TrEMBL record:
<dbReference type="GO" id="GO:0005829">
    <property type="term" value="C:cytosol"/>
</dbReference>
<dbReference type="InterPro" id="IPR005110">
    <property type="entry name" value="MoeA_linker/N"/>
</dbReference>
<keyword id="KW-0479">Metal-binding</keyword>
<dbReference type="InterPro" id="IPR005111">
    <property type="entry name" value="MoeA_C_domain_IV"/>
</dbReference>
<dbReference type="InterPro" id="IPR038987">
    <property type="entry name" value="MoeA-like"/>
</dbReference>
<dbReference type="GO" id="GO:0061599">
    <property type="term" value="F:molybdopterin molybdotransferase activity"/>
</dbReference>
<keyword id="KW-0500">Molybdenum</keyword>
<dbReference type="InterPro" id="IPR036135">
    <property type="entry name" value="MoeA_linker/N_sf"/>
</dbReference>
<keyword id="KW-0460">Magnesium</keyword>
<dbReference type="InterPro" id="IPR036688">
    <property type="entry name" value="MoeA_C_domain_IV_sf"/>
</dbReference>
<protein>
    <recommendedName>
        <fullName>Molybdopterin molybdenumtransferase</fullName>
        <ecNumber>2.10.1.1</ecNumber>
    </recommendedName>
</protein>
<dbReference type="InterPro" id="IPR001453">
    <property type="entry name" value="MoaB/Mog_dom"/>
</dbReference>
<dbReference type="GO" id="GO:0046872">
    <property type="term" value="F:metal ion binding"/>
</dbReference>
<comment type="similarity">
    <text>Belongs to the MoeA family.</text>
</comment>
<dbReference type="GO" id="GO:0006777">
    <property type="term" value="P:Mo-molybdopterin cofactor biosynthetic process"/>
</dbReference>
<dbReference type="Pfam" id="PF03453">
    <property type="entry name" value="MoeA_N"/>
</dbReference>
<comment type="function">
    <text>Catalyzes the insertion of molybdate into adenylated molybdopterin with the concomitant release of AMP.</text>
</comment>
Length: 407
């Protein structure tokens, strides 16, 4: 007699993530850092900028020399010299003096602001008229205004976006220490599943899950390692899982996660060395027959065979585990608020993840549910995202504000 599901809540399942170790770390060139997770804090070794920098073309001045200046009553300033780009000026600015400066030039000592060229008029080579006053600090960047010396500028666990790459560049960091991308083994199971290059015979289906899951793994910042299709055979699945265990940091097995006569995944996972079945069944839909085992400190997942179910389970459950082992520290998940376009019902006792399409009309964003069986691809092709209908909710009414998880 097969064991039936002992369903756990999504929150209970997600708590297991912290029990899996991070991948090791590696040093990579700056050009490869996009999307990678920083493995250690980075502390600045200089002020940024480390000189006062003009942000406008004009004249460096003491702000006090311009106070009260107007079109009717201009201030007159002596031109002390010109600042050359990329060089420190060898003079300082006193009261009643100014220096020609370009955007990005070093504000000379004694000056504390820059007046825009538009607000001045050169009378001759030595004197300008100033028609506006400037405030101290105006049109220039102070030393350390961007980042201070010895400040933590980037933290361990942070995902590196183009702007963080720019910051590393600004501090001359040519390499960065990041967490290694985990290798995620992917196994498809089922006698009816054939490789995509084959024409499926009667009752057969092409292997879609290998490809959707590989793409999802890549999107999550990891490396997919495809182990192909395994027939519904205990020994073959055991053999393939043992191979995947030695070559991967995590393994996704799709199909055979349910309780049918041919569903060997749970038996094989139980028989692997140092294995502990943590989860067999999650109170979510789609995705109830999901298995999680800890095998030699690695997560082995049995995902439902249905294409949409496998994708939803990946997005809601597996992805946070990958992000955890990748070392991602603080994730800012942005969900898009929208109004539900119609009533949606849901069973109590499970959290439903409903595919929705986003439609904007007259400045209002609406989430339109796309209902359909989890074995149908078209529902997820049309969808922009998912909404969650909580475990204790019987459904949501039209016009309820929902937060869409973008797919
Ligand atoms: N008595 C019960 N039966 C089922 C239950 C249940 O609670 N009690 N749950 C149902 C749900 S929900 C799902 S989801 C499926 C999951 O079953 P399995 O994980 O065992 O998946 P399979 O039976 O192997 O396959 C389901 C479906 O997906 C197709 N498939 C499988 N692999 C692929 C692939 N790589 N590419 C494309 N399509 C694939 C497979 O042919 C089946 O049609 O169990 C229900 N049953
Ligand atoms: O949970 Mo199944 O995963 O609904 O289709």
């Amino acid at each position: 007699m097969k064991e039936f599901f002992k369903v756990k809540s999504l929150d209970q399942v997600l708590e297991y993530a912290s029990g899996f170790p991070h991948t090791g770390t590696e040093e990579i060139p700056l050009s490869d850092t996009l999307g990678r997770i920083l493995a250690k804090d980075i502390v600045s070794d200089v002020d940024l900028p480390d000189f006062m920098r003009a942000t406008m073309d004009g004249y460096a001045v003491r702000a006090s020399s311009t106070f009260g200046a107007s079109e009717a009553n201009p201030a007159y300033l002596n031109i002390r010299g010109a600042v050359y780009m990329g060089q420190s000026p060898d003079f300082s600015i006193g009261p009643g003096e100014c220096a020609r400066i370009s955007t990005g030039g070093m504000v000379p000592p004694g000056a504390d602001s820059v007046i825009m060229i538009e607000h001045t008029e050169a009378m001759d080579d030595t004197t300008i008229e100033v028609f506006r006053s400037v405030a101290p600090g105006q049109h220039m960047i102070e030393i350390g205004e961007d980042f201070k010396n010895e400040e933590i500028i980037l933290s361990r666990g942070q995902k590196l976006r183009p702007q963080e790459t720019g910051l590393l560049a600004a501090f001359g960091k040519q390499r960065a220490e990041v967490f290694k991308k985990p290798v995620i083994g992917i196994i498809s199971t089922g006698d009816e599943v054939v490789p995509i290059e084959k024409s499926p015979g009667s009752g057969q289906i092409r292997d879609i899950n290998t490809h959707t899951l590989s793409a999802l793994v890549r999107e999550a910042g990891a490396i997919p390692l495809v182990f192909g299709i395994v027939q519904d055979d205990y020994d073959m699945l055991f053999e393939k899982c043992s191979q995947a265990l030695s070559q991967s940091d995590m393994v996704l097995i799709s199909g055979g996660s349910s309780v049918g006569v041919r569903d060997f995944t749970i038996e094989v996972l139980s028989a692997l060395p140092e294995s502990d079945i943590l989860v067999h069944g999650i109170s979510i839909s789609p995705g109830k027959p999901t298995i999680l085992a800890k095998v030699r400190n690695k997560a082995f997942w049995g995902l439902p065979g249905h294409v949409v179910s496998a994708m939803v389970v990946f997005s809601i459950v597996v992805r946070p585990f990958i992000e955890h082992i990748c070392g991602l520290g603080h994730k800012k998940e942005i969900r898009v608020p929208a109004l539900l376009s119609r009533n949606v019902s849901s069973a109590q006792g499970r959290a439903d993840y409903v595919r929705v399409r986003l439609i904007e009309k007259d400045g209002v964003l609406r989430a339109e549910p796309i209902l359909g069986k989890s074995g149908l691809l078209n529902t997820i092709i049309k969808a922009d995202g998912l909404i969650e209908i909580g475990i204790n909710t019987e459904g949501l009414d039209k016009d309820t504000k929902v937060f869409v998880i973008i797919l």
